Amino acid sequence: MSNRHLARSIVMQCLYQWDFREKPSSALPAIVDQMTKEFGIGLDENKKYILETVVSTVDHIDEIDKIISKYTINWPINQITLIDRAILRIGVYELKFNKEIPAKVAINEAIEIAKSYGGPSSGKFVNGILGALFNEMVENGEVKENLLKIHDVEEDEETDKE
């Protein structure tokens, strides 16, 4: 597991804790500190990424949740499992607000974390939501990467496994 992948897993755990504790922003530093100490041994170079991603995701939470809700019309955000919701929030944050992360990386990482931590269909669920968002971003000219459709990402993964 790469250090950045582990760092994203810690971000997911922090957002899960924050959401589980009913969103106390004042608790964020303690949550990040606890999760980093528990699971981030040797991730010194990624501590800044973890803290910035958690804090920025929470800062943009209303907009992020509106985006998620746009693609889950028949599934209200409060009915999405805490794990899947945390993963989607990271993915949407990285796609829409963190332009340093390539879209394909943000989506692939979210799918892999969903497969590792979520339920049996979490990977496909996350792929569907982030893929729809990505495709809309391409249509709106928000993404300059040379990817026509996000479904190519999952097809590439399947080909790599063969």
From TrEMBL:
A Gene Ontology BP annotation from the UniProt entry: transcription antitermination
UniProt key word Nucleus: no
Domain NusB/RsmB/TIM44: 7-132
InterPro entries in the record: NusB-like_sf, NusB_fam, NusB_RsmB_TIM44
Keywords: RNA-binding, Transcription, Transcription antitermination, Transcription regulation
GO MF annotation, one: RNA binding
RNA-binding is among the record's keywords: yes
GO cellular component: cytosol
Family stated for the protein in its record: Belongs to the NusB family.
Task of the protein: Involved in transcription antitermination. Required for transcription of ribosomal RNA (rRNA) genes. Binds specifically to the boxA antiterminator sequence of the ribosomal RNA (rrn) operons.
Name of the protein described by the UniProt record: Transcription antitermination protein NusB
Organism: Candidatus Magasanikbacteria bacterium CG_4_9_14_3_um_filter_32_9
Gene symbol of the encoding locus: nusB
